[in-house]
Amino acid sequence: MSSAEFSVGHLVWRLAMKWRTAVDRALDPLGLTHAQYVVLASLLALDRPSQRELADHTGLEALYVSKLARALEASGLISRTRDVVDTRTVRLELTARGRSTVEPAVALVSSLLDRLLEPLGERTDAFSRELTALLAVPLG
């Protein structure tokens, strides 16, 4: 089967795998995995989200976010605290160590993304809008 014969689904899967592998390799010297990076980078943008809010934001399963959060807390990169109003809710926040770890990682991943998107040139914004539209389609 030639690359021209690949289905769109296969191409999306291949691109996602290429991206995940590249990010994992780039972040390895910093001691982070792609999933850990997604959690930490998201915490830069969100104000003390709950684990559920973070799961919704990242697209990761809530149980996986919980597992990642416990490991990141044990590493001293985030803090997990109970919400004062709803004690069932756990709030997440970067520690100073987490911030100093994730900031260079964000720069590294941003550079990697620029390299990936370079062939699109001026079409990058349109591509982003199309991906956003696809992500909004309910499938399950």
UniProtKB/TrEMBL annotation:
<dbReference type="InterPro" id="IPR036388">
    <property type="entry name" value="WH-like_DNA-bd_sf"/>
</dbReference>
<keyword id="KW-0804">Transcription</keyword>
<dbReference type="InterPro" id="IPR036390">
    <property type="entry name" value="WH_DNA-bd_sf"/>
</dbReference>
<keyword id="KW-0238">DNA-binding</keyword>
<keyword id="KW-0805">Transcription regulation</keyword>
<dbReference type="InterPro" id="IPR000835">
    <property type="entry name" value="HTH_MarR-typ"/>
</dbReference>
<dbReference type="Pfam" id="PF01047">
    <property type="entry name" value="MarR"/>
</dbReference>
<feature type="domain" description="HTH marR-type">
    <location>
        <begin position="5"/>
        <end position="140"/>
    </location>
</feature>
<protein>
    <submittedName>
        <fullName>MarR family transcriptional regulator</fullName>
    </submittedName>
</protein>
<dbReference type="InterPro" id="IPR039422">
    <property type="entry name" value="MarR/SlyA-like"/>
</dbReference>
